[in-house]
Amino acid sequence: MEQSKQNMASLTNEAAASFSSSSLPRSSTDHQNHYTYQVFLSFRGEDTRCNFTDHLYTALRDKGIETFRDADKLRRGEEISTALLKAIEESRVSIIVFSQSYASSRWCLVELVNILECRKSRGQEVIPVFYKVDPSHVRHQTGAFTDAFAMLDQHKYKDSIGKWRKALSDAANLSGWTCEEDQYVFFYPKPQ
């Protein structure tokens, strides 16, 4: 258990160092583009909040990278959807931590669509992290993502399902990180 915690800390510190070296520090254009945060973290809380994402957030903060994480930045009484979407738009980089039940959260999928829209319209950098999930499962909504996606009310969200599937596929086609308990790999997706 202790070795696993040390490996997780090492992984997140190294990932944070790589993110910080990918031009995250504020530039003179940040003020013009109204960036409030250098990084927006998108993740499924019940899967990763108290482990990987918490370690990654701490490592980014320790490197001086202003990072939005919902538990720390939302004020009590503030409307969650509006605040989250605004935080995404005011971030230079979004890091999406895909975990096994990410696709079971309507809010995660709404965030994901908004993140990809900001990538197109604002040039926001998007870095996917596949935490204990295969990128191809995200891309094609197979494996663990089949079950997670099936947990959504398909009838209630029928107008959004196609948009969410496309967003998952598009995000999984970006270069990013795959993370297992004791290892991580930076990868470039295979052409389809």
Spans where pLDDT lies below 50 across 5 or more residues: 1-9, 21-32
CATH superfamily, by name, is Toll/interleukin-1 receptor homology (TIR) domain
CATH topological fold name: Rossmann fold
Gyration radius over CA = 16 Å
Instruction: Give the number of helices.
Output: 10
CATH class: Alpha Beta
Query: What's the CATH architecture name?
Result: 3-Layer(aba) Sandwich
* Apparent shape: globular
Mean pLDDT: 77
Helix fraction, binned, reads 40-55%
Describe it.
The protein has 192 residues and is of the alpha/beta class. It has one domain: Toll/interleukin-1 receptor homology (TIR) domain (Rossmann fold). It contains ten helices and six strands, in the order ααβααβααβαβαααββ. A six-stranded mixed β-sheet has the order 2-1-3-4-5-6, sandwiched between helices. Helix 7 links the parallel strand 3 and strand 4.
Quick take:
The protein is α/β, with parallel strands linked by helices and 192 residues long. 52% of the residues lie in helices and 17% in strands.
